[in-house]
Amino acid sequence: MAAEFLKIHPKNPEQRKINHVVEVLRKGGVIIYPTDTIYGIGCDLMNKKGVERLCQILQIKPQKMNLSFICNDLSHISEYATVETPIFKLLKKALPGPFTFILESSSKVPKILDANKKTVGIRIPNHQIPLMIVSSLGNPLITSSIKDDDTILEYTTDPEEIYNDFKSLVDIVIDGGAGGNVPSTVIDCTQEQLEIVRQGLGVADEYI
């Protein structure tokens, strides 16, 4: 069955549409959705069936997962990652925004994913659609970027194109308008010295 193509207003998402997406996620669904950077693909972190399907689509083994969690606020982050006070201050300044912070995972993460994950990438995007989904779901989304075969473009920005590529693999493709083609800036916070692992949209110099 082909995926649903669901248009949601990016600034004022309709709650009934968000509720519908959440219902699909709770049943182990996989969705594609916009963020403040590029379109992402994800599922409910707490749904084993969803996580297995996501790994299958991305062609990765659950033990080798290097995916990020989309959270909706800072208190949400502390459930899944160990955050020292200086790092918490940094997160408070930079989030919501176009950053992924690599943090030491809490003891909860390996139990959920059934894999020994010592670190986890955390995102709070500055975009109402994923924030409302996570808030209504009550759990983070486990997520990855949508990539393109074209190495020059690398990231697909058109939701209709994304739908054509993924309609037989996922349950819902959310159209929240054109996406960006620059990913988040990834900052490793697990060492004494913070390290920019990938320079993306976020300007880290403003915060570190």
From TrEMBL:
InterPro entries, per the entry: DHBP_synth_RibB-like_a/b_dom, Sua5-like_dom, SUA5_domain
Domain YrdC-like: start-end pairs: 15-202
Domain of life: Bacteria
Pfam families xrefs: Sua5_yciO_yrdC
Entries under NCBIfam families matching the protein: L-threonylcarbamoyladenylate synthase (TIGR00057)
Name used for this protein in its record: Threonylcarbamoyl-AMP synthase
Originating species: Chryseosolibacter indicus
